[in-house]
Hints:
Chain A: One of its GO terms (biological process) is iron-sulfur cluster assembly. The complex is a heterodimer. Chain A is of the alpha+beta class. Chain A has five helices and three strands, in the order αβββαααα. The termini of chain A are far apart. The model of chain A is unreliable at 150-154 (pLDDT under 50). Helix content of chain B is 39%, strand content 16%. Chain B has helices spanning 37-50, 60-80, 94-109, 128-137, 154-160, 183-192, 212-215, 240-244, 280-296, 298-318, 346-355, 368-373, 390-409; strands at residues 18-19, 22-23, 25-26, 88-91, 115-119, 140-144, 165-171, 196-200, 219-223, 234-238, 256-259, 264-266, 322-324, 336-341, 358-359, 361-363, 379-383. In chain B, strands 4-10-9-8-7-5-6 form a seven-stranded mixed β-sheet, with helices on both faces. In chain B, strand 8 (196-200), helix 7 (212-215) and strand 9 (219-223) form a beta-alpha-beta unit. At the A-B interface, helix 2 of A face helix 11 and helix 13 of B. Pyridoxal-5'-phosphate binds next to helix 3 of chain B.
Amino acid sequence: MGLSKLNSLYREVILDHSDHPHHKHALADSTSTITLKNPTCGDVINLDVKLDATDHIADIGFTGDGCTISQSSASMMTDAVMGKSKEEALHMAKTFSDMVMGKEHPQADLDQLEDAAILSSIMQFPARIKCATLSWWALQRALMREEDQVTKED
Amino acid sequence: MASNVTDFTQDFAILNQRVNDEPLTYLDNAATAQKPQQVIDALTHFYQHDNANVHRGVHTLAERATEQYEAARAKVQHFINAAEPAEVIFTKGATDGLNLVASTYGEAHVQAGDEIVISIMEHHSNLIPWQQLALKKHATLKYIGLTADGELDLADAAKKITDKTKIVALTHASNVLGTITPLKQVAKLAHQHGAIIVGDGAQAAPHIKVDVQDLDVDFYAFSGHKMMGPTGIGALYGKRSLLDATDPYQYGGEMIDFVNLYDSTWTELPWKFEAGTQNIAGAIGLGAAVDYLEAVGMDQVAAHEQRLVDYLLPKMLDLDYLEIYGPHDPAKHTGVIAFNIKGIHPHDVATALDMEGVAVRAGHHCAQPLMKELHQVATARASFYLYNTQADADRLLNAIQEAKEFFSHGSVEAK
Ligand SMILES: Cc1ncc(COP(=O)(O)O)c(C=O)c1O
């Protein structure tokens, strides 16, 4: 088989995102910050999210080291959720994790993921699924944490 | 390659398969080794013919099981040249043995202000037990550093070990740098200062002749699964005088002498440290692995791996896009070779290699402080064993070249 199978994973879009990741920087005025680690390889992602008064993602940025898959996934994730409401973003995170686990989803949900939908090919590489989901988990945690803080302050 | 080691692959059915349509090249032996048919047969035979609990029954099967369990202990004793079988305690593995020492001997002897000395290349299993003990006891944890080419810095060891040092814990072979440490010299340093030395033999016992008396280590822990034995079994060597003076690790059946309502006495070594029903089949399987390795001879095992390293390492060093960790002199390097393709994350490299049937590890190798020292988040690691061949080394080289090409161009033509 050799490396030709890799073509389905390392698509041009994915390599573009990992070579030139979008929103790869820390935010000075984030409302929620999270650091997550991929336990298998030790890769770390720091995610900063800024929610506006209406609970929409006004800005988002990430930093950290990682493989092609984790870096491009984070880049595509930030593109897709920018400007989305918290509800929408959480729904997208759910769609993404379901997608990489091979669960069926309405096409409209997948379309919402934009470039990130291309990572459905990760299914063929089970050892790498965590690389793809890391940033989406970070997003989920960051938004949930935001919820915790809000309820505590209430 | 001139080799008097014959083809071992026939004993390892698992190696004879295709992975991703390519012949499997198993180079993740530092994580765990494959098991020869002889070990698998020993387990099957035990369960089919002799299974019973040990030291508990008067019936025939109990007698057979006990006899085989203790025979396995004697095999391990000879394998590491311990003075007597009672100095060999069966454990779950290296991690279990190291934790045993930290929470019994360490707990009893380390006090506030004392020092524990380990090295920066330790696996987390020989680091966290000491770190936590130091925290709990308000003792100081000190790290021996590395020389420029990635060996243990003996001069630094001489500085770090002082009269305040109670325990020195050192790996005998690095699971990342591919070095054998001067454990014997460090043991001497430790003893000169009245400290004890604990050796982590997880990466050494499978690959080189270990003589605990010659090394003069006080404790020495290793795992069965990395030396062709089953998972869930390992051994801890301890000097009798220390084991005798140390309280048990766990309490329960098998390890008692007399149990009264308000106190108990402990049985003799080694059973004092083997509370509850042990991994009997695992111990017998480990005995079979020892038999297998002894039949080849540990000197032969080491020589075979050295020949592979002599062949492979210079070829890897010739590839200027590779970064190799640990000594570049093959004579100083074991069959554990950590590397990175510059600019490509090791995780991506390992996936590419897997598509070529080549199994390597990518990650921090449970040695995060060492990764920091090397300024790496992670590395790829190929690790060899007795059944690996020069053809495996060539397949690795070829797969590395293909991976490099793939990630430089972003794709390959379908073959
Ligand atoms: C140097 C070293 N020490 C300790 C261990 C822990 O061995 P185990 O997980 O079998 O307890 C390992 C295993 O990776 C190792 O390489």
